[in-house]
Design brief:
Order of helices and strands: HEHEEHEEEEHHHHHHEEHHH
Strand content: 5-15%
Radius of gyration: 29 Å
Oligomer: single chain
Structural class: alpha/beta
Helix content: 40-55%
Length: about 300
């Protein structure tokens, strides 16, 4: 979701009320940081060019009360790895790590956003306050998210969907107003994330709309989903055959004879009546094509 520096800059500016430009950001290429955060499920890290400033961006889909403990752990490990820069004889500089949490869960965020709200009070020794900045999807109206051009806000709109119907409606709205540069990632999100939720028919319809708007690279995705849909249809037919073997066909009992040959004959007739292709009947029943053609001719 956050591979584009324009979206990252927009997110950071939204959270911090700053005016950071996309060209001043770059994704972290520090292997230690990437490996450390990958193990701990933090999402992405960007750094400010020419400054010792790192933005740690984490996506949360549920309220995590322990996040105020995890965030300092992330920040500490990153600062430790970045080391200390000697500025002058008695002056040193460490890396500033700013944490931003993007929350898209169903309930309102209720976790503390700084340690002062949770740690034991001891006025004689007030320590440093660790905090994070929060972007809560509940603080945005749908219309506001629809009117924002950055893909990050489109993602928030998708995440706000309360049910399948609203999800389809929101995806349709996004596709109609989406910038062409976001077509590839939108196609991936629909095909890889939301197909199981919406069903292949709806997902294919949305991808076709994206394709009509100029998403030419959607062709392979559409073909893949069509192949999967064909496989599912084939499996459905096999399931019907299995149901017929025990005397059921779409909830209705079919007549089965005493002999195995008569039973196979009846099943073939049932499939022929439903206009199944000869090659599929052969695959389902294991009968010879010549035998199936004879039965077809006798009907």
């Amino acid at each position: 979701m956050l591979e584009n520096t324009e979206d990252v800059a927009s997110l950071i500016n939204e959270a911090l009320n700053t005016k950071i430009k996309p060209e001043n950001l770059e994704k972290s290429n520090n292997n230690f940081i990437n490996n450390f955060l990958e193990k701990r499920e933090a999402d992405v890290v960007y750094k400010l060019k020419d400054k010792r400033v790192i933005f740690l961006i984490e996506h949360q889909s549920y309220v995590d009360k322990k996040i105020i403990i995890r965030i300092p752990e992330y920040q500490s490990e990153i600062m430790k790895n970045e080391g200390i820069e000697k500025v002058s004889e008695n002056k040193y500089k460490t890396t500033k790590v700013i944490a931003i949490v993007v929350y898209t869960g169903r309930k309102k965020w209720t976790a503390a956003d700084n340690l002062k709200l949770t740690e034991e009070n001891f006025q004689e020794a007030n320590g440093l306050i660790t905090e994070y900045k929060l972007i809560d999807v509940h603080n945005y109206k749908n219309e506001e998210l629809e009117n924002r051009n950055e893909f990050f806000f489109k993602f928030l709109l998708i995440e706000k969907s309360k049910n399948k119907e609203e999800l389809e409606k929101n995806l349709d709205k996004i596709i109609r107003n989406l910038k062409p540069k976001y077509f590839p990632i939108m196609g991936k999100i629909i095909s890889l994330v939301y197909t199981n939720i919406l069903g292949k028919d709806i997902a294919l319809n949305l991808l076709e709309k994206l394709k009509e708007r100029g998403g030419n690279n959607m062709l392979n995705v559409v073909k893949m989903l069509n192949r999967e849909k064909a496989k599912e249809e084939k499996q459905r037919k096999i399931d019907i055959f299995n149901a017929e073997k025990v005397g059921l066909s779409k909830g209705e009992k079919i007549g089965l004879s005493k002999g195995q040959k008569q039973k196979s004959l009846q099943i073939i007739k049932n499939l022929l009546f439903r206009n199944y292709p000869i090659d599929e009947i052969q695959e389902i029943t294991g009968s010879d094509i010549e035998e199936i053609n004879k039965i077809k001719a006798s009907l």
